[in-house]
Amino acid sequence: MTKSILLAVSLFVAPLAHAQDLHGAWIATESDATGDQTEHTLIFAGTFFSEAIFGKAHGKFIGTKGGSYTLNDDTLDLTYEFANQSPNLVGETKSVSYTLKNNTLELGGYTWTRIDDGTPGDLFGAWLISGRKREGEIVKRDTSGPRKTMKILSGTRFQWIAFNTETKQFMGTGGGTYTTIDGKYTENIGFFSRDDSRVGASLEFNYELKDGDWHHSGLSSKGQPIYEVWSHRRL
């Protein structure tokens, strides 16, 4: 009886532990004929993922894609919610084989090196913007619709993406590295699809976790005061 229970528990825990192995951020680089390097940054958080592609030296944005994922033996089933270079991917699920050994991931024709495993960082996970403060009141926003603004964070990397799963429209993205120290959340911008001139800038915000939500306040990249509420993404 005890052996049966232990076996059942191990069968339940094993796939979860396997999924945890991918959590965090990964990078891969490629060079063109002139020697210019393109960086791919891949983040897995919970059951969601995103990949950003940009010039390594200057941060010029090239592309992004992502959505949700599940593990099935030695394949990843990737369901796309945004893909600015190939909008027809949105809504499709692709099975991709992968191998993981130590901190090296072979996936999609690239060799990825782990940057972090989801730590440190109080804000590891996938988040959806769920409210804003207006005239002193928090105005909630429905997160179940097709138009979403998602922010996905590993232990040290972040990316935000605005997209619409129904129209397959991509509205924008940005990302880079971040820190959370003494109630301050600081973003260091590594790429920004709307304005390459913002690359290299650092933005500091106040952050607080209240009832599981992330309260984010300070000045936007345009210098405007903001107060946003982000909720953990479940679906």
Summarize the structure.
With 235 residues, this protein is mostly beta strands. It has one helix and 17 strands.
3D structure, described in words:
The structure is a single chain. The chain is mainly beta and about 240 residues long. The chain folds into two domains: about 20-115, Beta Barrel (Lipocalin); about 125-230, Beta Barrel (Lipocalin). The protein contains one helix and 17 strands. The chain has one helix spanning about 1-20, and strands at about 25-30, 35-45, 50-55, 60-70, 75-85, 95-100, 105, 110-115, 125-135, 135-140, 145-155, 155-165, 170-180, 185-190, 200-210, 215-220, 225-230. An eight-stranded antiparallel β-barrel has the order 1-2-3-4-5-6-7-8. A hairpin with a 4-residue loop joins strand 12 and strand 13. The chain is globular and about 50 Å long.
